[in-house]
Structures are given as structure tokens and as C-alpha cells.
């Protein structure tokens, strides 16, 4: 990149590279996790679905607890140290998962992962504070594009790796990918360092004193419901593919391709939605994409072949492309810089609460009512969330 390129764009470029690498590593886990759990000695398909939800979601408990703590520390110590801590720890945990001997080892490692991790909770505030407000929607869209591009490659790559070199070696490569992301992030430059003495001397406003704190609370609630809906399905999607396709060859690769369909769509549309949000407002994008995601979830519970599910997941990915950048950009527009790390940390906690409860209860519900009925329940939650957003967030954000 040339010497005339603004520093905030250079930071965005580096963070996008690191996020892409980390996402490639992390997204490999979802489609192979049920198969890895079965290899560790869990034989019954219903038990595999339950344990997939528990293992996939348990680290979100510790993430929900620790994200506000790390967000508060990032306001005091700077964003870059928090980014390096999160990405380095993530790589070490992924390597450890390659040596697991039982499903309980996976649970413990995932809980430990959440204690010192939280990559997104660290990198998003840095990009938010370094990026001009008038370009924040575009920047969040570009960052999300890099994130989902890695998520696009990861499931297919992970499925191919698991069949080629085995599950354990695949997890070792996940850890190596995350450590490569750590090395890339050492090149980030943070210009708006926290003024430690001023922060200590000046009393910061409380959350309730913020002029639009009710809208921020609404964004938090939307974040919980959104990620609950998404995480209900993710850990058991491989089980669903096997249910509709029977005993097919290359199950891991087929499941990875279906996972990647949503990521491919998000990669294509995220930056476009971010640019559009800068023009018409993130609250409108949020409502429209919630509505779309609810509508395309309904037929996902009625498919009879994997290719049908893949097409519907592609359209679901278009909706996701607008959801996550919109929530982050709304917070960027409403939160004061002195409290930005703390508020983003709380929003990350809301995300992780939604992800844990979705993964945990999704596995239980899939075993109880069936995966097809689970899709209908998820659709109802998304459509209800869209209606609530239209009535409560959109009118208030215009004031």
C-alpha cells in the first residue's frame, strides 16, 4: 500500500487479513465437530447433536463473562494489546483441541478459550475509533467481508483436510492459522491511545446518561436474538445434511460446501450493505435483513436434497451480510469514544449469550422436536425480531 494511504485504511487492511486468517481457521471447526465428537466415542446420533451444541456453545459462557472486562481494559490500556492477547490465545487453544482424548476435554478447552479470547471484541473497537464516522459503515462492511470470506473457505478446506489428514491434524492447522493472524496483527498501529490520567481524573458518564441509551439496549437485545437464531442451526447442520441425504460419500466436504454457501453470499454483499448503510441508515438495513433471514429460514426445514439447502443458505448469507455490520455501525454512531470499548464489549457479551443459548438449546431442541421443526422455530424468532426492530429501533434512531 502506498505512502499516501491513510493510516486508518492501513489498519483496516491488516485487520482484514488477520480476520480472514482467523476465520479460515475457526470456521473449519463447525462442519467437522459432530464427526470429531463421534470419533471420540459418542455413537448415538441424538447424543452427537446434543454434545455438538454443548461443545460449540460452551465457550460463549466465558466469553460473555470476560468480554466486558477486556473491553473496559481496552479503554484504559489500548486496543492493540487486547487484539494480540486474543489472537495468540486462540491459536494455542485450537492446537490443544487436536490432542483431546474425550468430549469433556473439548468442553474444558472451549471454556478456557473464552476466558482470554474475544478477538472480535478487541478488533472492532480499534477499527471504529480509527475510522472516520462518515466511512464507518463501509469499513465495517469491508471487515465483515474479510471475515466471511475466511468463513467461506474454512468449511470446505476443513472438510477436505479432515478426510485427507484426519481431524486432529486439522485442528493443529487451525491453531497455526490463528497464530499467523497474530503475527499479522503485530503490524497494526494505534494512534488514539487512551489518556490514562484523564480517564482516571475525569468521571465518565454512566450508560444511563447517554442520550440514546435505549436504542443501544435495543441493539443489544437484537444481537442476542440474532445470534441465538443463527447458533441454533450451525452445530447440527452436518447432522441435518446426513438426515436428508442418507449415507453419502464425502459428508464433511458436502456439509462444508453448504456452510460456505452463506459465507460466499455474505462476502459478495457485505461491503455493499455497509456502503448503503452510510447513505440510508443502519437501522433500515437491520430491519430488512432480519425480515429476509426469517423468510428464507422457513423453507430450509422443508428441503429434500443438500443442493436445495445450499441455495437457501446462500440467500440466508445475503441477509447475514447486512445484519452484523449494521449492529456494529449503530453502536459506532451512538457510543462516545471514551466508552466505546466497554459498550462493544457488552454487545459482544450479548452476542456470546445468544450463541451459547442457541447452540445449547438448539442441540436439545433438535433431539426433542426434530431438526425440521427447529428451522420453523428459528424463522419465527427472526421474524419477531424484525417486527420488534421496526417498531422500537427504527423510529427512535430517526430522532
Word description of this protein:
It is a single chain. The protein has 399 residues and is mostly helical. The chain has a single domain, classed as MFS general substrate transporter like domains (Growth Hormone, Chain: A, Up-down Bundle). The chain is 82% helix and 0% strand. It contains 17 helices and no strands. The chain is globular. Mean pLDDT is 79; it is low at 197-202.
A few lines on this structure:
The chain is an all-alpha fold and 399 residues long. The chain has helices at 7-27, 29-39, 45-77, 79-97, 103-116, 119-130, 136-165, 167-185, 196-201, 213-233, 237-245, 251-280, 282-297, 306-334, 340-369, 371-392, 394-397.
Any descriptors?
399 residues; mainly alpha; Growth Hormone, Chain: A
Strand content: under 5%
| CATH top level assignment | Mainly Alpha
- Mean of pLDDT: 79
Instruction: Summarize the helix and strand pattern as letters.
Output: HHHHHHHHHHHHHHHHH
* Count, helices: 17
Number of domains: 1
CATH fold assignment: Growth Hormone, Chain: A
Give the strand tally.
Answer: 0
- Give the biggest sheet: none
| Class from helix and strand fractions | mainly alpha
End-to-end Cα distance, whole Å, is 40 Å
- Identify the CATH homologous superfamily: MFS general substrate transporter like domains
**Percent range for helical residues?**
over 70%
Taken from the alpha-carbon principal axes, the silhouette is globular
Give the name of the CATH architecture: Up-down Bundle
Radius of gyration: 20 Å
The low-confidence parts are 197-202
Amino acid at each position: 500500500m502506498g505512502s499516501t494511504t491513510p493510516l486508518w485504511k492501513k489498519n483496516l487492511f491488516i485487520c482484514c487479513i488477520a480476520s480472514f486468517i482467523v476465520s479460515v481457521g475457526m470456521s473449519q471447526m463447525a462442519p467437522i465437530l459432530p464427526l470429531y465428537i463421534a470419533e471420540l466415542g459418542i455413537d448415538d446420533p441424538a447424543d452427537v447433536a446434543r454434545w455438538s451444541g454443548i461443545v460449540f456453545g460452551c465457550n460463549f459462557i466465558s466469553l460473555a463473562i470476560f468480554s466486558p472486562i477486556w473491553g473496559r481494559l481496552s479503554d484504559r490500556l489500548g486496543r492493540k494489546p487486547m487484539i494480540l492477547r486474543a489472537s495468540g490465545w486462540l491459536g494455542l487453544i485450537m492446537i490443544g483441541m487436536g490432542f483431546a482424548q474425550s468430549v469433556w476435554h473439548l468442553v474444558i478447552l472451549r471454556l478456557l478459550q473464552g476466558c482470554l479470547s474475544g478477538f472480535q471484541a478487541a478488533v472492532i473497537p480499534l477499527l471504529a475509533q480509527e475510522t472516520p464516522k462518515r466511512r464507518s459503515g463501509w469499513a465495517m462492511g469491508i471487515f465483515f467481508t474479510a471475515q466471511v470470506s475466511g468463513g467461506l473457505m474454512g468449511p470446505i478446506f476443513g472438510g477436505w483436510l479432515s478426510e485427507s489428514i484426519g481431524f486432529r491434524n486439522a485442528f493443529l492447522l487451525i491453531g497455526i492459522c490463528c497464530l499467523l493472524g497474530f503475527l499479522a496483527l503485530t503490524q497494526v498501529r494505534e494512534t488514539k491511545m487512551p489518556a490514562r490520567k484523564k480517564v482516571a481524573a475525569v468521571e465518565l458518564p454512566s450508560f444511563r446518561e447517554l442520550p440514546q441509551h435505549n436504542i443501544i439496549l435495543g441493539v443489544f437485545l437484537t444481537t442476542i436474538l440474532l445470534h441465538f437464531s443463527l447458533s441454533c442451526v450451525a452445530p447440527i447442520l452436518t447432522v441435518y445434511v446426513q438426515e436428508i441425504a442418507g449415507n453419502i460419500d464425502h459428508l464433511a466436504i458436502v456439509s462444508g460446501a453448504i456452510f460456505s454457501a452463506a459465507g460466499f453470499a455474505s462476502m459478495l454483499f457485505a461491503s455493499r450493505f455497509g456502503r448503503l448503510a452510510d447513505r440510508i441508515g443502519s437501522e433500515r438495513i437491520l430491519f430488512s435483513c432480519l425480515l429476509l433471514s426469517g423468510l428464507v429460514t422457513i423453507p430450509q426445514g422443508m428441503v429434500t436434497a443438500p443442493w436445495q439447502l445450499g441455495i437457501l443458505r446462500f440467500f440466508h448469507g445475503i441477509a447475514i451480510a447486512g445484519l452484523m455490520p449494521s449492529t456494529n455501525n449503530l453502536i459506532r454512531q451512538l457510543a462516545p469514544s471514551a466508552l466505546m470499548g466497554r459498550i462493544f464489549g457488552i454487545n459482544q457479551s450479548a452476542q456470546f449469550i445468544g450463541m451459547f443459548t442457541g447452540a445449547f438449546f438448539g442441540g436439545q431442541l433438535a433431539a426433542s422436536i426434530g431438526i425440521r421443526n427447529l428451522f420453523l422455530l428459528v424463522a419465527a424468532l427472526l421474524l419477531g425480531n424484525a417486527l420488534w426492530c421496526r417498531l422500537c429501533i427504527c423510529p427512535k434512531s430517526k430522532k
